[in-house]
Amino acid sequence: MKPQAVFALLILALDAAYLQQALELPLPFARGEPGPSLMPLVLVLTLGIGALGVLVQELRGTAEHEDDEDANFSLRSIALIGLTCGFVWAFEPLGYWYATLFYAFGVAWLFEQERLGPARAVLTSALISVGIAGVGWLFFVTLFDLFLPEGYL
Amino acid sequence: MFAELMGGFAALANPETFLYLVGGFLMGLVFGAIPGLTATLAIALLLPFTFAMELTNALVMVMAIFMSGIYAGSVTGITVNIPGAASGAITTMEGYALMKRGQGAQALSLDALASSIGGVLGAAVLMFVAVPMSQFALMFHTPDKFALVFMAVVTVVIVAKGSIWKSLVTVSLGLMISTVGFDNMVAQGRFDFGSANLIEGVQLLPAVIGLFAICELLLQGGAKARTAADTPAFRVRHKDFWPNWKEVREIGFLTYLKSSVIGVMIGMLPGGGASMASFVAYAEAKRVSKKPEEYGNGSHEGLAAAESANNAMCGGAVVPLLTLGIPGDSVTAIIFGVLLIHGLVPGPGLLTSEMATIAPMFAALMVAAVFVFLSVLVFGPYYIWLARMNRGVLYAFIAMIAMVGTYASTYSVFQMWMALAIGIFAWALRLMSYPLVPLLMGIILGPYLELYMRRSLITSNGDIMTFFSSPISIGLYVMTLLFIYFLRFKSQKVS
């Protein structure tokens, strides 16, 4: 089955889960007024229609796909997700400086290694991460007087 | 009213406010010129900082980013054939052809002049049309407001690029996200799974950061290095960026004026946007041109028409936002968020009650448009450097600003997780070619759509005919049908 059709099925599954949660709310007009479930139930319908429309077009082969040259799956994107998860997880325990230095280094290296090679990119990325962490501190704390965590580990 | 509008210009004389204007203008230039970055992203990244700013400074900075960001989208298009934003696509076609003929500086100069003229005219229209429109908007009752928001939601779906089914899916997903959290009419939590964090609902800031910053970062992870980095430097002097007035006269003031009017009108349509404005103005200029054969091969007239229109769009796009509470595109949707963060609700009544607060925003748009022309004289030779910026620095900086900015404005690690989750979801949608703007519109318009729908039904004891009980709402439904016809069916026939 085509990836677009599988994705439409996933959307329909999401729609079903949302419907299940919506049905746990009081039904519309059960207390004499529209209530909190009216809008969600309408949305279940519109999302279902949209996802079915995509699915039918894909199965019939009538779907037209716009070329989006920027949208490509890549392991680097997965690595970026992993890095960002690590950053959010470590942000308060390690504090702004350590977490940001590691995060900025990781992101910079992922892009720089394409240009410089894995080994040479290490030094460049380290310099970039120090600069970015410094600029961030300057922006958020010095200039706008906002609080950033200092870590407790 | 005139005194209040002038007061807006007086507010810019405050050195601090003026610095925010200049800072916003420069930020817009940088973000607009760099391929992959946009005015939308610049304003999204600014959003956390606006918490700590005075409202006037925040609005002035946002408008300066909007104007310069739209203009700068064409800069890298002309110099290295990569438009910084979709709105610069037409300018790229004409401007890069001129660049290859050795007229790059002249193309950048004409581009800046046209953007300035369009921007000033668009801002002038905003100043003098917005208030009469807002007084009309005060006549709207709740069912009329529902019809209006409904029209915006429908228009968002039909103008989005690509499959209408996919637009329907993403707008529905956005509306669904807006239903998470505490119900705004009865004491009832919805879709919160018992989480104390989720019961507050999905905040606008992590949604915007996720949709535009995180998603862009992940998309760039899948993109190869830009060829722009391999392009040899383009050496020019500052004086090369002064316009050739003979060429300006040949283009003719009527071309600038007509293109600007087209830009403003399209800007006023929800979902219109700079790309549509530049394309329509370009098509119209070509239709009446004495030299249509030059179009596509480096036409000064075509370049000027496209650029006048996309900057005039800025003023037009703000009109429905401020007067009717309808954000026409992603940038105005985020400006909507900036206003909400500072306790101002765009829509009927805003301009009559808060004109003095909003006036600096109008003045900033006009002054920023003048800055556009001045900027090319100063920065012209350096624009190429922006397009060649190191990707490691760029995306590490975006990643840091996006995530730390979310924390700094909410002091919540949960909101950072939320921004990341929305970003990953948005990335998956983009991989499958689903449009993201309807998703953002759904998140923003959802609470209003639901509120007006339920209020109308409560006051009419559940009578559905209340939605068709006034001439205004009937007129809005007719307009919705006309939009569907012209923007979907008619445009398909033309293409």
What is the structure about, briefly put?
The complex is a heterodimer of chains A (153) and B (495). Chain A is mainly alpha-helical and 153 residues long.
Reconstruct the topology from this structure.
The complex is a heterodimer of chains A (153) and B (495).
Chain A: H1 3-22, H2 38-60, H3 75-94, H4 96-116, H5 120-143
Helix pairs in contact in A: 1-2, 3-4, 4-5
Chain B: H1 2-12, H2 15-33, H3 39-50, H4 55-72, H5 75-80, H6 89-100, H7 104-137, H8 142-159, H9 164-178, E1 181-182, E2 189-190, H10 204-221, H11 245-251, H12 253-268, H13 273-288, H14 300-324, H15 330-341, H16 350-379, H17 383-387, H18 391-410, H19 413-431, H20 437-459, H21 471-494
Antiparallel strand pairs in B: 1-2
How would you describe the overall organization of this protein?
The complex is a heterodimer of chains A (153) and B (495). Chain A has 153 residues and is mainly alpha-helical. Chain A has helices spanning 3-22, 38-60, 75-94, 96-116, 120-143. Chain A is built from five helices and no strands. With 495 residues, chain B is mainly α. Helix content of chain B is 73%, strand content 1%. In chain B, strands 1-2 form a two-stranded antiparallel ribbon. Classes of the chains: A mainly alpha (153), B mainly alpha (495). At the A-B interface, helix 1, helix 2, helix 3, helix 4 and helix 5 of A face helix 9, helix 10, helix 18, helix 19 and helix 20 of B.
